[in-house]
Amino acid sequence: KQEIEKIQIKIASLGLTESRITADETIQQLFVECRLNNFLAEETPLSLPKPPCGQRIHYNYSTVINVDKKDNHAEREYLKSILLKPDLPADSLKFTVVSDPPEDEQDLECEDIGFAYVSLKEIFQKQRDIIEQDIDVFDSQDASAVIGKLTVTVEALSALRSVHEECKND
Fold first, then answer.
1. 1 falls in which pLDDT band (50, 70, 90)?
2. Strand duo 29-36 + 40-43: pairing
3. Which of 45, 121, 122, 146 has the fewest Cβ atoms within 10 Å of its own Cβ atom?
4. Distance between CA 94 and CA 35 in Å, rounded?
5. Under DSSP, is residue 4 helix (H, G, I), strand (E, B) or coil?
6. pTM score
7. Cellular component GO terms, alphabetically (predicted)?
8. Exposure letters 3-30 (e unless 16+ CB within 10 A, then b)
9. pLDDT digit string (tens) for 8-38?
10. 35: Cβ contacts below 8 Å, ≥ 6 apart
């Protein structure tokens, strides 16, 4: 039977630590974007008020990236390259925390304030999906500074196994 192959992503919640972000009055509303390489950019449909330090905002947003052979060849080839090329730098799902300008200041741009990553290669190596896990959000202006935690679920293992099988059969 041909299962629909997909990567399931859930963006559960976001909490911020004490940082320039929590101190910045112009940053009020936040949403999260998720992308696989340069394919898909899915974003939470709502931007939520920036949480006070120590509290969380809850998106509970789920999305699916289809990677079946028939309709998503490019995505599948990208997954193959992750498994076959150990030194590929872009082996991760990238989550971007974005500041959404307030309604009354629409002339301001959306601004990327932080990035978080889930390594698909690591999911495959450990043979374990990521379920409701806190991942570090790094400051967009200082990649060594952690500005918060994003709670995510990434279920990619069965799709990666399928792609891996296909690699062996090629």
1. very low
2. antiparallel
3. 45
4. 5
5. coil
6. 0.91
7. photoreceptor connecting cilium
8. eebbbebbbbbbbbeebebbeeeebbbb
9. 999 999 999 999 999 998 899 999 999 988 7
10. 41, 42, 93, 94, 96
